[in-house]
Amino acid sequence: MDKQTPMQPSLAKTILVVDDDPSMRLICVKTLRAEGFTVLEAEGSSESLKILATHKQPIDLLLTDLMLPPPGFQMTSTGNPYPRVHGHEVIQRTLAMKKTFRVILMSSLSEQERKAYRIGSNQVPFLQKPFSVETMMQLVHSVLTAPPLSFDDSTMRSIAQQGVRWYG
Question: Which pLDDT tens digit goes with each residue over 115-126?
């Protein structure tokens, strides 16, 4: 019997995967678990923000889709601590809560669509969909060994207007 072992030790690492596409979320979750990570999953921003705020154990990485539309009509409230927002705002809110955090933003948006969002090219690691599991794992390991993003005055601006490193 040939057992597959993780690329690097990741026993104590927890990753939160956020994607409204169940098949994409399943691919990410299964791949990360096979590599030895503890994986939490959320289908949208509201659920992910609640997990980030209430999960008792450390979360080491947030892997989130850029476009997270609400799954249907919902009354909104300005007092809602876990609103439905896009992935770049999930990152912004996470950094506001945690002060430092490791993140990867992913999307299937074309280059033209990314330009419409004014997403740059060098601060937030980005994974272009579709991607291979090898590309995803390479980026995950790279981000986990790199310094986390930190909350500062520039983070208060929309992350969509800051730099994003593109992979894939």
Answer: 666 554 457 888
